[in-house]
């Protein structure tokens, strides 16, 4: 029976603190011992998948519903198999915590030629690949594990994009102090001066507009801002449309909802109302090809 508090327990407790109740993944030699702790954790359920790509897509879907997800694979072959799913999560602002079980630190430091590597004694190839599709990365060592876990998880939560954690098999069971404060106790600090200037500019544009309209999309959902959007619509009385990726972020039976905008493919009234607006209040919108009818929107980004 496990009695001491370890790096593994710290990481799993922090995942649960973010609201995670299920962890997806595939077992492998470099994560088997860690998975014993996952299975033993009273607040987490292990969901084994047929392969790592399936696990990545399952985690992506889970994060869209629950707000954040975790995925565990082994080093090299496992993380390469999952990388396409993580890249998709990065592209669509889905917060997935990718945990990789790695060889022992001594093996990596000595450049030993072990399996699941490229046979050149280098162990950072795959981490470098993940660096392109994650917003924070870390290779855990006992001395700084707590700070690094918190830093990476906070970044995932705040930026709503994947992160990457390497957990060596000789680090997961090292003793560590329990957390003494909530992981999300450090709010993001805004530049108040810049916000004030933006607000003055926005108010001026809105007050002088004759046909203002609100156009919202999927990032409203990612950043849990549906209620804020609803209050804005109610207080302003402005009509609102969404794009297809944001379908469902606002009640479509609401009297101010005018439809799902898709450029030239939109219904004539909706297209005219959006394209001819002299003030489009864009919230959480990314004007990609597939949701604008192939970039046929009748307005510029400015």
From TrEMBL:
One of its GO terms (biological process) is aromatic amino acid family catabolic process to alcohol via Ehrlich pathway. Residues 6-107 form the Thiamine pyrophosphate enzyme N-terminal TPP-binding domain. One of its GO terms (molecular function) is magnesium ion binding. Its cofactor is thiamine diphosphate; a metal cation. This is Indolepyruvate decarboxylase. Residues 201-299 form the Thiamine pyrophosphate enzyme central domain. Keywords: Decarboxylase, Lyase, Magnesium, Metal-binding, Thiamine pyrophosphate. GO terms for cellular component: cytosol. PANTHER family: PYRUVATE DECARBOXYLASE (PTHR43452), PYRUVATE DECARBOXYLASE ISOZYME 1-RELATED (PTHR43452:SF30). Belongs to the TPP enzyme family. InterPro entries: DHS-like_NAD/FAD-binding_dom, PDC/IPDC-like, THDP-binding, Thiamin_PyroP_enz_cen_dom, Thiamin_PyroP_enz_TPP-bd_dom, TPP_PYR_PDC_IPDC-like.
């Amino acid at each position: 029976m496990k009695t001491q508090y370890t790096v593994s327990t710290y990481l799993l407790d922090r995942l649960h603190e973010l609201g995670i109740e299920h962890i997806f993944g595939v077992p492998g030699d470099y994560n088997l011992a860690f998975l014993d702790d996952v299975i033993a954790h009273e607040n987490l359920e292990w969901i084994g998948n047929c392969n790592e790509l399936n696990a990545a897509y399952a985690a992506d879907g889970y994060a869209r519903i629950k707000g954040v997800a975790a995925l565990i694979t082994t080093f090299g072959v496992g993380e390469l198999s999952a990388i396409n799913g993580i890249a998709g999560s990065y592209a669509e602002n889905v917060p997935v915590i990718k945990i990789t079980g790695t060889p022992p630190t001594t093996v990596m430091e000595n450049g030993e030629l072990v399996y699941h590597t490229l046979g050149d004694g280098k162990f950072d190839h795959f981490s470098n690949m993940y660096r392109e599709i994650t917003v924070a990365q870390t290779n855990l060592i006992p001395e700084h594990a707590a700070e690094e876990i918190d830093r990476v998880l906070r970044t995932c939560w705040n930026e709503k994009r994947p992160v990457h954690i390497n957990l060596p098999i000789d680090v997961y069971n090292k003793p560590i102090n329990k957390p003494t404060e909530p992981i999300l106790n450090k709010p993001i600090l805004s530049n108040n001066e810049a916000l004030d200037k933006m607000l003055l500019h926005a108010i001026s544009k809105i007050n002088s507009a004759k046909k203002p309209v609100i156009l919202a999309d999927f990032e409203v959902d990612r950043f849990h801002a549906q209620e804020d959007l609803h209050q804005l619509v109610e207080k302003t009385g402005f009509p609102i449309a969404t794009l297809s990726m944001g379908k469902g972020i606002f009640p479509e039976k609401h009297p101010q909802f005018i439809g799902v905008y898709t450029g030239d493919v939109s219904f004539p009234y909706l297209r005219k109302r959006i394209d001819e607006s002299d003030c489009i209040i864009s919230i959480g919108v990314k004007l990609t090809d597939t949701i604008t009818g192939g970039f046929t929107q009748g307005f510029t980004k400015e």
